[in-house]
Amino acid sequence: xxxxxxxxxxxxxxxxxxxxxxxxxxxxxxxxxxxxxxxxxxxxxxxxxxxxxxxxxxxxxxxxxxxxxxxxxxxxxxxxxxxxxxxxxxxxxxxxxxxxxxxxxxxxxxxxxxxxxxxxxxxxxxxxxxxxxxxxxxxxxxxxxxxxxxxxxxxxxxxxxxxxxxxxxxxxxxxxxxxxxxxxxxxxxxxxxxxxxxxxxxxxxxxxxxxxxxxxxxxxxxxxxxxxxxxxxxxxxxxxxxxxxxxxxxxxxxxxxxxxxxxxxxxxxxxxxxxxxxxxxxxxxxxxxxxxxxxxxxxxxxxxxxxxxxxxxxxxxxxxxxxxxxxxxxxxxxxxxxxxxxxxxxxxxxxxxxxxxxxxxxxxxxxxxxxxxxxxxxxxxxxxxxxxxxxxxxxxxxxxxxxxxxxxxxxxxxxxxx
Length: 418
Ligand code: BGC
Known about the structure:
The structure is a single chain. This protein is α/β, with parallel strands linked by helices. The chain has a domain at 11-226 and 332-400: TIM Barrel (Alpha-Beta Barrel), CATH 3.20.20. It has 13 helices and 14 strands. The strands form four sheets. Strands 2-3-4-5-6-8-10-11 form an eight-stranded parallel beta barrel, surrounded by four helices. A two-stranded antiparallel sheet has the order 1-14. The chain is globular, with a radius of gyration of 21 Å. It binds beta-D-glucopyranose. The site of beta-D-glucopyranose has 10 residues, from loops.
């Protein structure tokens, strides 16, 4: 029964969850992370805690996972295609991999789940890494051929495409922090080099994908999934903090999305995890940019804050772009499932509030459908709506998955959850 205090979403709202190929499929032996992990783990100061190995074996269990998604009331799913599977070497296109992903997409469609597909979610084929990966401008043309191939082969079945996942984070983690494959060292010039090639890959990719679709008569929408950081005031009563947060938010969104020429994209996709509560004080300069944690603030299992007001802030700042918006990731590492239900509810309340104020948000994807390989952290952080027992690979729905199911199935946050 509807209640006048329910927070409603539009009837065609996309409710889903997200995954990425390397994190769930298992045995992506041709990707750059694979060899990097094997090397890293041998070292005394290994940057990876686990080998990705068989991961959740989603490669063979995708139907079971999509049954779960369906059962959990979801009508959309974000996944990625592993470039290294599709193109194992420069002159080789794998028909087996094409068949596989066609089956994956068909399995979603059979369940009335709309596929949202990322062409590249962090990992590169080893042959691309061997010539320098993001540090070699050649990657732009290799990538363009790959995405053209994707549209030719899957463009009739998939409307929503993402060129890249979180380019800023990829460049930061690999090159600025030297913490992810393929990088070994921290290097500011490499960071900018990589980022520049990512920007070129996105822009070229966008054009190539749209053109390939047009040639075939397919109708597709293309954008990139960006990790957009929020800036909010630490002291909401301080005009300095309020002004600083508002200014940083505007500058960050305008400059960053400007580099990626988001104005020409078909939509804006936001992965949302981080909010800096910024504070202007001479005693702590970094507080003005990085922000500060509150004393006693409850954190996720990986030490991240949970600040839904940041999502509202980001969405409000996207209104002027006059684009469809998707929240393509938002999730929490929470093995005990203590915070996840409330986390989802609070973030969706923020989304609802932003929609009411004019943000054209069309969908929300919780990260992640299942627990998975959380990059350098390994398997310990548990982001999933479904808990995975890695010894048997069985999946179990967490309590929060059922709360999210209520929201997805009713297209509303019921008054008793608000
Ligand atoms: C990435 C995911 C990752 C998630 C949680 C996002 O930035 O796209 O691959 O698992 O964050 O860390």
